[in-house]
């Protein structure tokens, strides 16, 4: 579904990504592992059209989108749930969710069905629907951010550090939701520092360090890789 072929990104004289090549197949949950500053967020923002690659190709469903506008990329079926959630804190949870459907051109009934799906995935959001999003806990705000991305009914959902700063129980809830989203037919690309938890739900993964892909493999291959375990799993 998604192929990055030797993608590089440079800001002035500073190269952030160098010849990054990854593939994400339809129906997969692929994890991108890396420490803070490794280039994960830059890679996601480049796929979303917020940064332009210096060179390389980004192919989604057969079309090169490397130079496409962000709105066109969203319309093609890619949703980006960014690090830091980026909610509208003074707006209600419901309004934040509905903003995710702004690009939809199908019926109001279809949008309502997606909202019902999001509420079933995160039942607490029904209770909090008319509260300001900024009044929620960090974990609940992350659920709103994921739900907002899902409201666009994407074919590919990119989750950038969705568990950052969350309590262990909430980490598990968020990652279980990511796995459920994938089982429901939405392809997921997940950027994470929490390798042990992320690999538990992933099909495959890549390790990015200082803007380079250094390791790739299946979940079992990465979990058994000594260097990956020492650097990211803590074993």
UniProtKB/TrEMBL annotation:
Residues 2-235 form the ABC transporter domain. One of its GO terms (molecular function) is ATP binding. Signal peptide: none annotated. Keywords: Amino-acid transport, ATP-binding, Nucleotide-binding, Transport. InterPro entries: AAA+_ATPase, ABC_transporter-like_ATP-bd, ABC_transporter-like_CS, BCAA_Transport_ATP-bd_LivF, P-loop_NTPase. PROSITE patterns: ABC_TRANSPORTER_1, ABC_TRANSPORTER_2. Belongs to the ABC transporter superfamily. PANTHER family: HIGH-AFFINITY BRANCHED-CHAIN AMINO ACID TRANSPORT ATP-BINDING PROTEIN LIVF (PTHR43820:SF4). This is ABC transporter ATP-binding protein. It comes from Tistrella arctica.
């Amino acid at each position: 579904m998604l192929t990055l072929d030797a993608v590089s990104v440079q800001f002035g004289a500073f190269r952030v990504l160098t010849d990054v090549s990854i593939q994400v197949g339809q129906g997969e949950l692929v994890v991108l592992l890396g420490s803070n500053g490794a280039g994960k967020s830059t890679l996601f923002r480049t796929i979303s059209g917020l940064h332009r690659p210096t060179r390389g190709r980004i192919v989604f469903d057969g079309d090169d989108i490397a130079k496409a506008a962000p709105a066109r990329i969203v319309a093609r079926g890619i949703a980006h749930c960014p690090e830091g959630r980026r909610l509208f804190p003074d707006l209600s949870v419901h309004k934040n969710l509905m903003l995710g459907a702004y690009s939809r051109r199908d019926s109001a009934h279809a949008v309502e069905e997606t909202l019902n799906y999001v509420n079933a995935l995160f039942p607490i959001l029904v209770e909090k629907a008319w509260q300001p999003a900024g009044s929620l806990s960090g974990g609940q705000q992350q659920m709103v951010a994921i739900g907002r991305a899902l409201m666009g009914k994407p074919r590919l959902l990119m989750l950038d550090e969705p568990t950052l700063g969350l309590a262990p129980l909430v980490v598990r809830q968020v990652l279980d939701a990511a796995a459920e989203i994938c089982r429901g037919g939405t392809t997921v690309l997940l950027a994470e520092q929490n390798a042990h938890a992320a690999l538990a739900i992933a099909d495959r993964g890549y390790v990015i360090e200082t803007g380079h892909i250094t390791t790739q493999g299946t979940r079992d291959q990465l979990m058994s890789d000594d260097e990956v375990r020492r650097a990211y799993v803590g074993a």
